[in-house]
Amino acid sequence: MRIETAAIEGIVAITPPRFGDHRGYFSEVFKDAWFRENVADVTFVQDNESLSAQAGTVRGLHFQIPPFAQGKLVRCLAGRIMDVVVDIRVGSPSFGKWLSQELSPETGKQLWIPAGFAHGFVTIEPNSVISYKVTAPYSPQHDRGIAWNDPMIGIRWPFDERDMVSSDKDKTLPRLADLPGHFSFSTQQPQD
């Protein structure tokens, strides 16, 4: 598997190799021992999947707070997305900074997002299907988020904001400046 470290510490892009012939390809997309040794020593406890029917659908920016903070391993099974992470670790040199990766089934690229980051994406193509592994189960009491269109963060989305579709919940998320310090860069430990 090919690993690319990102400009923000902790974020890793992973591209599994594919072995193909006239029938198609085969790829091992996840191996627990390899992931623990090369990326993060975590345990995944749940797999999630979402379908977004319309291009320009934005989901996020979401995260869970301790003790249910989640690391996520994200991949796109159909369509194409711009996957986005924002560093929300207080004291981090990259606090409030964002980065994005395009994910699609054609590339097979996956994105590892440890706890301490807000995560979201926008669909570039209709009928995009996202699959992601998480290191903690979903907990409504610990579910949080920040506004995907927060001007302080300044994410450069590929669509005009007026053309993007989001949930009512995501439209009411607070801005980064109003977010309590749920994560600390200096004291954050890997979540298992």
From TrEMBL:
Tell me how this protein assembles. Homodimer.
Query: Which Gene3D superfamilies does this one have?
Result: Jelly Rolls
Q: Which residues form the active site?
A: 62 (proton acceptor), 132 (proton donor)
Q: Name one GO molecular function term.
A: dTDP-4-dehydrorhamnose 3,5-epimerase activity
User: Got a GO cellular component term for this one?
Assistant: cytosol
Q: Where is this region: Disordered?
A: 173-192
Query: Record's superkingdom?
Result: Bacteria
Q: Which GO terms describe its biological process?
A: dTDP-rhamnose biosynthetic process; polysaccharide biosynthetic process
Q: What is its EC number?
A: 5.1.3.13
What reaction is this protein's catalytic activity? dTDP-4-dehydro-6-deoxy-alpha-D-glucose = dTDP-4-dehydro-beta-L-rhamnose
The family annotation for this protein states: Belongs to the dTDP-4-dehydrorhamnose 3,5-epimerase family.
Q: In which pathway does it act?
A: Carbohydrate biosynthesis; dTDP-L-rhamnose biosynthesis
Q: Which UniProt keywords apply?
A: Isomerase
Query: What's the stated role of this polypeptide?
Result: Catalyzes the epimerization of the C3' and C5'positions of dTDP-6-deoxy-D-xylo-4-hexulose, forming dTDP-6-deoxy-L-lyxo-4-hexulose.
Name of this chain's protein: dTDP-4-dehydrorhamnose 3,5-epimerase
**Residues flagged as site, Participates in a stacking interaction with the thymidine ring of dTDP-4-oxo-6-deoxyglucose:** 138
